[in-house]
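User: I'm new to structure prediction. If I give you an amino acid sequence, what do you actually give back? Let's try with this one:
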Amino acid sequence: MKQERAQHTHRTLLNAAATEFDRHGYAGTSLARISQTAGVTMGALTFHFPSKAALADAVRAHAAALTRTAVARASGADGRPAAGVVELIDTLTRLLDEEPSVRAAARLTWEQPESPGNWHADWSPDLRDRLARERTAAPAAEGADAGDPGLDSADLEALAHCLVVGSEALRRGIVPLGGGDPAARADVRQRLGRLWHRAAAGPPASGAHR
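Assistant: Good question. You get back a string of structure tokens that encode the predicted 3D arrangement of the chain. For your 210 residues, that looks like this:
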């Protein structure tokens, strides 16, 4: 019973810390604020986590576990055929919509890029694998201009990162599109998929209507 209470307190503190880091960032979050949000005494908080940095590390680790599990599931690790880049982008944007710890880890990553636990590192290797598969499988566009090779793998990787990071900005209202409505966020995910397909398809065939 005592161990169960300790585990419950640990989870409660972790969830509260994720919520506060997501809303206020690292500098704007205090142990007192986390303690209040969790409904846990400061003594209990420091028993489980001796510092704000320790809490941030725990939130990053939890987000990494959630992200890697979701990415592995979307990668066909459960026996399904391996999914492509659009599925990965959708998986990541859904995590940003639904998981406070993932949103917190993403925010901590751009606030503290030098710190360990970079959220993008949790999915970048899988992105590169998917890009390689898609580039290998996709035939050259019929009628494409041989003098215009289109986007290379590094370009496409940068674009995918921008789409994921941009979805976070949209969700936070930094870019006023979609707002906080779940249906609007789903529409944003569809827009990201269409943008990816358009960019990855390369330049239009010669003579195609513009």
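You can read the tokens as a compact description of the fold. Here is one thing that stands out. Residues 150 and 202 are 5 Å apart (CA to CA).
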